[in-house]
Amino acid sequence: EKYDFVEKAKIAEQSERYDEMVDFMRKCVHLDEELNESERNLFSVAYKNQVSLKRKSWRILSAVKERKSDTASSKEIACMDAFLERIELELAAVCKEVIELIDSHLLDKGSVEMKVFYNKMKGDYYRYATEVLSGERQKQEAENCLIAYKLATELTLGS
Known about the structure:
84% helix
């Protein structure tokens, strides 16, 4: 079963179907088996590509909104705000999912190297979330980011 999910994820990657790649790797992770290096990289690439598209959309639309802030109608601004909010929710959901998968299925398995990899990955996804959040939630995700990176560093150094 795991082999099938991994092979399907590879095909999805080759055809740039990242949402499907994510689905296959999510199913693979839910099997609660340790991922080898190749599988771990597929897991990382799947989510990285999915979140990269959302981050890019958010940055582009934020720049457009800022550029047009003086000339756009209130209706146009409201439309951009609605799209930005939707992108923010989607991005936050992907980040939350990755972190939960790592915490629930991956972090307690494998070598120190794998734990470093997964903690760094968690730090990355907390950081992505902070890019679009604000207020207390942004502050909390930034603190979580630092904790994950610090743990990865400590594991690397053997502390």
